[in-house]
Structure formats: C-alpha cells, structure tokens
Write a structure and sequence with these properties.
The chain is an alpha+beta fold. It has three domains: about 230 residues, P-loop containing nucleotide triphosphate hydrolases (Rossmann fold), CATH 3.40.50; about 35 residues; about 70 residues, Nucleic acid-binding proteins (OB fold (Dihydrolipoamide Acetyltransferase, E2P), Beta Barrel), CATH 2.40.50.140. A hairpin with a 2-residue loop joins strand 10 and strand 11. The structure holds adenosine-5'-triphosphate (ATP). Adenosine-5'-triphosphate (ATP) binds next to helix 1. It comes from Rhodoferax koreensis.
C-alpha cells in the first residue's frame, strides 16, 4: 500500500527549473533513498514533501489526503511528517530535554516521561538531558534531532543528509541504528543523500535524480546491476563499459564471450560489468592461448583489503585504457605479471 504519492511535480526558482515532472510512490513502511549529484533537486523535493516549499504544479498525496495541488497546500505543521535536516538544526540555547520536547506542550501530562521514552528510542542516556547541543558528539546531536522529530509521532520521516557530518565509522553505525529504529517503529522513511553506497545500504527503494528528474527508481540491487544508462551506472558505483556484439544471451567483447542479463537483445550494444565481477589469476606467460582472455598488470593501487589492479588486455592497442579490476590485497599479482581474466556473473546491456 502506498503512503505517499508524488505526481508530475514541477518547481522553478525564477528561470531555473529545479524539479521537472517528478513522479514517485513510497510504499507504507518502506525506506526510500533519493540519491543524485549536488544541485539535482533532492532537497527541494524533500522540502515540498515536508511542506516548507510548494510545487508550481503537480500533486502530493499522503495517506489518501491531498497535501499539495500546485501552490494550494496544507502547511508543514499540519502534515504529521517528521523532518531531520542536514546539520540537525538543534536550538543551541536549549538543553537536550527542551530540544527533544520542543513540539510537546509545556503542560502536557507525562511530558518528562515522553521525553525519556524518546531518548530511549534513540539510545541516548537520560543523563544527557541537561546538556547543551555543543556538549554532545555529532552522532549524539543527530540522535537528539531524530528524537525531536519522533516526538510528533510522524508516519513519515524525512532525513536530509543526516549522517554527512559524521566520520565514516560513526556514520555507518548511526545509519544502521536509525534504520532499525524507524523500521521497528513502523515509520516510513525518505532519506536524501549524495552518497551512493549509503543509499544502496539504507533503502529498499532507491530513486536516482539528475537535473530535476528521477531517471530510475527501483530496488538497490536492480539499480546497481541493471542501471538504465551509463551515467546512472557510474553514479551508483565503478563500472567497466565495453562495446560488444550481443545475441542469444551472450556478448562478444574484448573479454571474449560472456553471458548477458537480457537474452532478447541483439546487435551492437554497450555492456557493463562491475569491477568486482572480474577475477584475476596470475599465470606463466607460456600458458597464454586463444581459449581464454589474458592481460598484463600495468599498475596497482594498493588499498589494503581491496586493491585496484590496472590490466592491459593482450592484443589491445596501447591507446586503449587498461581495465580497472578489484582484487583482494593478499592475492594481488605484481606489476608486469601475466594474468588470466575471468568474468563472474553476467554483463548488463544498456538500453541505449
Ligand atoms: N530558494 C531557492 N532559490 C533559488 N534557487 C534555489 C533555491 N533553493 C534551491 N535552489 C537551486 O535549486 C537547485 C537544486 O537545489 P537542491 O538543494 O534541491 O539540490 P540538491 O540535489 O539537494 O543539492 P545538494 O546535494 O548540494 O544539497 C540548485 O541549483 C539550487 O541552487
């Protein structure tokens, strides 16, 4: 069942079109990530859902209620939608208790208990209630911001790059904790991020935005393995894109004959592999023959657990860019080694 439906939403600032016909359905209980480069319109879309901005045209429907029909819109405070902005936006002069309880009436019965319950939901110790925001870590501040948004018991939570100020380890741990918390509370969530790995790991629906349009919406796995075009593929991770002749479920390309995931395609096409699909095995140079694909290691970028190995295919012209292959650090072949290149899984054929 869909909780939120966005239909044909357009928004311009002066002559600049920021949202150019957005259609998106968000199922109840799901986690959606909107991902896209800086300036593509992600925050504007989130602010339209929250009610801080209104569309020029198009509709926003939430739980069957029309929230916006063009500029005719329900104000933000009547929507029952939580919003956690990028920097948390805590009130610096208020302590944690007053930040968390900001939207709760001062004379509300059980107010202190509700604030303690919210602190517990976001795994913060109530011993922190008297502290000011500057006396908290970045991760703790984000949790307070989340608790403040949860106080309104929203059915939908909007998160605008809430983890971007956190360092890598804390970021992953906070993201996971927040995802679990929102799911167990049954709160539908939309996360805006420009970090593709964050989108892929957080969401069960990913929407890729480019220049004010949603270019593809689907599960993380579908988008990663079957992106619509090379730009979307490249945005979601590293790629190896090769020209090929495809037909009957196979592609003939510089790596030899490999399986493709669209059996119905034929003719000249561009195919895509993810670098982790290529596997290298060092072999003696005299074992090179025509039955497999071989190359020479030209460079290694040692990254510990995963290294990027540059491989020039034997027979390729010197102007052809080497393949960038990911290889475990303990098995990395040396520069100059001859390697057999094998492909795991199938390649994806781009539509155009
Ligand atoms: N109030 C405004 N007035 C004029 N232009 C605006 C306004 N808000 C946003 N824009 C412009 O709209 C475009 C999209 O902005 P938006 O913040 O939605 O992008 P974004 O994808 O969230 O980017 P980022 O990842 O950098 O936050 C940008 O070109 C921005 O400059």
């Amino acid at each position: 069942m869909k909780l939120l439906e966005i239909s044909a939403v357009r928004k311009s600032y002066g002559a600049v079109t920021v949202l150019d016909g957005i259609d998106l359905e968000v199922p109840a209980g799901s986690r959606t990530a909107i991902v896209g480069p800086s300036g593509s319109g992600k925050t504007t879309l989130l602010r339209i859902i929250a009610g801080f901005e209104f569309p020029d045209s198009g509709t926003v429907t939430f739980g069957g209620q029309r929230l916006a029909d063009g500029p005719d819109a329900v104000p933000a405070h009547k929507r029952g939608i939580g919003f956690v902005p990028q920097d948390g936006a805590l009130f610096p002069h208020l302590n944690v208790a007053d930040n968390v309880g900001f939207g709760l009436a001062r004379n509300m019965p059980g107010r202190a208990d509700r604030i303690a319950e919210l602190m517990d939901m976001v795994s913060l110790d109530t011993a922190m209630l008297q502290r000011r925001p500057h006396e908290l870590s970045g991760g703790q501040q984000q949790r307070v911001a989340l608790a403040r948004a949860l106080a309104q018991r929203p059915r939908l939570m909007l998160l605008d790059e809430p983890f971007s100020a956190l360092d890598t380890g804390l970021r992953a741990a906070t993201r996971k904790a927040v995802a679990q918390l929102l799911t167990s509370a049954g709160i539908t969530t939309i996360l805006v991020t420009h970090d593709q790995s964050e989108a892929l790991s957080f969401a069960d629906q990913v929407a890729v935005m480019r220049a004010g349009q949603l270019v593809q919406v689907g599960t993380p796995m579908a988008l990663y393995l079957r992106p619509r075009d090379p730009a979307t593929a490249g945005f979601l991770g590293d790629t190896i894109v090769l020209p090929a002749q495809v037909g009957a479920g196979w592609a003939d390309c510089a790596l030899g004959r490999i399986a493709v995931n669209q059996a119905d395609r034929s003719g000249a096409a561009q195919i895509m592999l993810r670098p982790e699909q290529l596997q290298l095995a060092e072999v003696p140079v005299e074992s090179v023959d025509a039955t497999a694909c071989f190359g020479e290691v030209t460079d290694i970028d040692f990254g510990g657990p995963v290294c990027v190995v540059s491989v020039r295919l034997l027979g390729a012209s010197s102007s052809t860019a080497p393949l960038q292959v990911r290889s475990p650090g303990i098995h990395v072949p040396p520069v100059g080694a001859t390697v057999r290149v094998a492909v795991a899984g199938s390649a994806h054929v781009f539509d155009r």
